[in-house]
């Protein structure tokens, strides 16, 4: 029933896909941007329903899963992480990924809905340490497009990889355009 509602939301709001979701990978870090509004979450969950992806995960602080809505976060694919663990967050997540046959992890490279002047790199280190590809997924609210980039593995040149990522995401208009990543294009030119 919930899947049907998500599909209805996708169709009613007029979103569409550009590119192809790479089903050949059982494990990936999917970085989705720009993340500027709660509306991004609705687009994300509805796209999962449209693509038939049942096992996509997202990270949340473990305190969210202890509260009254913990069951909901888990049902939606949430995975709790302990921000205060002696084992760093990257190591925790890599261990989770390695313990599963399939693990599709969605993350925001900004780490917040606010305007940022640089990307966070936890996603990058997770993908590199787990030896899994990164899939860039752009949300363009101006065109109502979800755009899939080509999956790639983190190289030994983090700076070049981050420039490639910024170049991809700098093309998309966020739900709140003042918070999207288009202003970062000047940092890589």
What does this structure look like?
This protein has 189 residues and is α/β, with parallel strands linked by helices. The protein has one domain (30-141, 157-187). Helix content is 35%, strand content 19%. The chain has helices spanning 2-13, 39-51, 62-66, 70-75, 89-98, 122-130, 158-169, and strands at residues 16-18, 27-33, 56-61, 78-81, 103-107, 134-140, 145-148. A 7-stranded mixed β-sheet has the order 1-7-6-2-5-3-4, with helices on both faces. Strand 6 and strand 7 form a beta hairpin. Helix 1 (2-13) packs across helix 2 and helix 5 packs parallel to helix 6 (122-130). It is globular, with a radius of gyration of 16 Å.
Provide a brief overview of the structure:
It is built from seven helices and seven strands. With 189 residues, the chain is an alpha/beta fold. It has a seven-stranded mixed beta sheet with strand order 1-7-6-2-5-3-4, sandwiched between helices.
């Amino acid at each position: 029933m919930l899947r049907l509602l998500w599909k209805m939301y996708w169709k009613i709001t007029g979103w569409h896909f550009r590119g192809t979701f790479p089903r050949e990978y059982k494990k990936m870090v999917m970085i989705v941007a720009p993340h500027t509004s709660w509306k991004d979450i609705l687009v994300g969950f509805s796209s999962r329903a449209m693509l038939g992806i049942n096992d996509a995960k997202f990270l949340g602080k473990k305190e969210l899963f202890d509260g009254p809505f913990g069951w909901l976060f888990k049902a939606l694919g949430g995975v709790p992480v302990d921000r205060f663990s002696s084992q760093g967050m990257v190591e925790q997540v890599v261990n989770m990924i390695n313990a599963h046959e399939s693990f599709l992890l969605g993350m925001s490279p900004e780490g917040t809905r606010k305007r940022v002047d640089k990307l966070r790199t936890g996603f990058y280190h997770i993908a590199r340490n787990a030896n899994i590809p990164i899939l860039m997924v752009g949300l363009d609210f101006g065109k109502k497009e979800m755009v899939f980039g080509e999956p790639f593995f983190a190289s030994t040149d983090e700076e070049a990889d981050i420039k490639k990522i910024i170049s991809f995401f700098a093309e998309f208009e966020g739900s709140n355009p003042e918070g999207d990543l288009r202003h970062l294009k000047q940092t890589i030119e």
